[in-house]
Structure formats: structure tokens, C-alpha cells
Design brief:
3 helices
């Protein structure tokens, strides 16, 4: 498992983030405090507090390409 901190303060960034995660076959979760949602679910993401940094957890050993794509959302 690998985790990174990201920021998704604008709706356009959420849309771009979901497009990146949906293209991946890995299991990806998004955490905000005690809440955890599927990172491929746009509705789930909008249920979180997007004013604070979020933690992305990627459950795969082969996710270097995905991590590179997520770098543009780094908090």
C-alpha cells in the first residue's frame, strides 16, 4: 500500500482526479478524517470535506505510473 496527500478544492480537479483513478485497475481509497470513500466515485468524493488535504491510499505494488499522474494534485 502506498499513500499520498492531495488537494481537490475545485470541482474541475475532482473531475480530473476521478478520470485518472478510473483508468487504473488498482484499488484506490480516499480518506478525509474518519471518512473513507472509493476514489473512483465522484459522488463519494463530493461527500468529503474538500477544503482540507485528503489522503489517497493505493493498494497495489505496481502503481508508479499512477503516482506520477497524481503528483499534479499534491497538497
Amino acid at each position: 500500500m502506498k499513500s499520498v496527500k492531495i488537494s481537490l478544492e475545485m470541482a474541475q480537479k475532482v473531475k480530473e482526479f476521478v478520470a485518472v483513478t478510473q483508468a487504473s485497475e488498482c484499488e484506490i481509497l480516499l480518506k478525509s478524517g474518519k471518512y473513507v470513500v472509493d476514489a473512483k466515485s465522484i459522488l463519494g468524493i463530493f461527500s468529503l470535506d474538500l477544503s482540507k488535504p485528503l489522503t489517497v491510499e493505493i493498494y497495489s505494488d505496481d502503481c508508479d505510473e499512477l503516482l506520477a499522474e497524481l503528483a499534479k494534485f499534491a497538497a
